[in-house]
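Good morning C.,

I know you're traveling, so I'll keep this short. The sequence:
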Amino acid sequence: MHLETSDQEYIHSGHVGCPGCGAAIAMRFVLKALGGKTIMVMPACCWSIIAGPYPQSTLKIPMLHAAFETGGAVASGVRAALDVKGDSETTVVAWAGDGGTFDIGFQALSGAVERNEDFLYVCYDNEAYMNTGVQRSSSTPYGAWTTTTPGRQWKRLRKKNIVEALVAHRIHYAATANIAYPDDLMGKAAKAKTMTGSRFLHIFATCPTGWRLPSEMSVKIARMAVQTNIFPLYEVEDGVRYTINFTPKGYLVNEYFRLQGRFKHLTDEDLAEIQEMVDEDWNLLLRKAGMAPA
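The tokens, ready to paste straight into the viewer:
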């Protein structure tokens, strides 16, 4: 998916994100696609800190901080207020991490989507509660170390499929995106901007700090997540029409896992088990898209 963009930036220099922060990269690309006529609702997350303390802000658009669990509800209210004013041009975006989407914020998101509220919900997914100390979330993948799944107590449950949870609501548009594929990411954000009703964008956003990898590896690791089928790029329209946007090389998952400290405890047997899980999920996605598994 290709998109023509201008040189306009909507983030000031000097944000306080960690070096290599995938969430900061994701924000830059999304705002370049959406433009300045955007209002952002931000539940508690890393970006609540990255944006900077009031009255300063890294962002060049209006932003409203919200409680952890209220992203969908507050975005619904902002949209309703704009409608009362007759403003149909401003895009309302709820911007949350995986904790504020998969877990704490899911009830508000589910309720808003069921009502088909007119906003774009963006989840930048760094696969744990990074802002509060790398605790596991339901987005944390099978096999991962976190501070609440330490040592041999690493997470032994599979990651929640948040896109499929939203698809079950018959959401108008749901898609995955990745910071290592900016044209695809910005194209999907721009596409969602043209739509009305509830839209959802799930962005894979590396966290070098929580994943225990060098900051300069941030984009490479994100690219490998796609190339190994761990994080496929696809979109679903009206809960039924699946489109796979990128055909990966299908590298073995161990090439991705071995580079991250959060997985260093895994054995060859563990990795073989994870490979089977990834293959199973990929083949299921192919069938949903009307493509025969390889």
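Safe travels,
E.
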